[in-house]
Specification:
The protein is an alpha/beta fold and 222 residues long. It is built from seven helices and ten strands. α2 links the parallel β1 (24-30) and β2 (53-59). Residues 12-20 have low confidence and may be disordered.
Length: 222
């Protein structure tokens, strides 16, 4: 059924293109709220050029959106790198960091040892989901002392600012900034590649949007 709907959408887009206009729906998922501003700018500009094209933007996790892109449920995923069969355009490398309150006893240190997550109260974001913070802990064999959990990174930062615990996340999640928290370099250090992913057989409208991104815009981490 999904393939039939997708074929119908492609046909409608091709018909519109023959008539001299571009029409269709482009769906984009991003794991980083920091990129909302960029997404609104690029989609708004493209919409000005092609008013028949509409957009839907979703928030979620990198693994979730990679899978949806590969299953043709969305067109593009602005996420951290994941395994899979998809096209990939890298844009930046973002460090994983520890987040803790400015008054935390470990805030005076310049670095945060990963094993501290086993002894300090830990705040987990999106428990049970495959996110970069969880991947980092699993990679280094760390079992965090989970005391609090939330599905929202902003709530995670609020908890950390209140001194409820520490967390490990992508540095980009801190932008543009949160009061009452500080970030510390992790030991071991790790960089996460962030970029744009898409499935090989894009719709005609999505192909044109990709060309627009490649020629007119670039993604930046700040």
């Amino acid at each position: 059924m999904q393939e039939l709907l997708r074929a119908s959408e492609r046909l409608a887009q091709m018909t519109a293109s023959v008539r001299g206009g571009e029409e269709g729906l482009i769906q984009i998922g991003t794991a980083y709220r920091h990129y909302y501003k960029w997404l609104t700018e690029v989609t708004s500009k493209f919409h000005e050029l092609h008013p028949g094209v509409t957009f839907r933007i979703y928030t979620g996790t990198s693994t979730e959106f990679i899978q949806k892109a590969e299953q043709h449920q969305i067109d593009f995923a602005l996420v951290s790198e994941r395994e899979g069969e998809h096209e990939w355009m890298p844009f930046c490398k973002d460090p994983m960091v520890a987040v803790l309150s400015e008054g935390h006893k470990l805030a005076k240190r310049k670095t945060f040892l990963a094993e501290f997550a086993e002894t300090e109260a830990y705040i987990v974001t999106c428990p049970g989901l495959d996110i970069d913070g969880t991947r980092y802990l699993d990679k280094h064999g760390i079992k965090p002392n989970v005391q609090f959990s939330t599905m929202d990174i902003q709530a995670t930062y609020a908890m950390a600012a209140a001194g409820m615990g520490v967390t490990i996340t992508n540095r980009i999640n801190s932008l543009p900034g949160y009061e009452g928290v500080c970030h510390r370099r992790l030991v071991p250090a790790e960089l996460i590649e962030i970029g744009l992913a898409w499935e090989k057989n894009l719709s005609p409208v999505a192909e044109k949007f990709l060309e627009f991104i490649q020629t007119e815009y670039t993604l930046k981490s700040s």
